[in-house]
Specification:
alpha+beta, SH3 type barrels
Length: 78
């Protein structure tokens, strides 16, 4: 089941499936290492607003809520 990254609870690990948006946002996220198939762990996410802190390939990134809402992910089942 696909869901936006902005809806993932802190501590959960997901896999990036696709990015809904134009060339600019897809290019920007790809430059940060957010490509389809990459695993993402949400470190901090406050559902009331503010940026989302994620861990990707050993780095920490902060994404704005609007951008995170365009990143579609699926849960990784153990």
């Amino acid at each position: 089941m696909l869901m936006p990254l902005s809806m993932v609870a802190p501590g959960q690990e997901v896999e990036l499936v696709t990015v809904y948006g134009g060339w600019g946002i897809r290019y920007r996220l790809a430059e940060m290492g957010l490509n389809p198939g990459v695993r993402i762990r949400v470190i901090q996410s406050d559902f009331r607003g503010g940026p989302i802190l994620i861990a990707v390939r050993g780095s920490r990134l902060a994404l704005g809520r609007g951008m995170a809402h365009k990143v579609m992910v699926r849960s990784i089942t153990p």
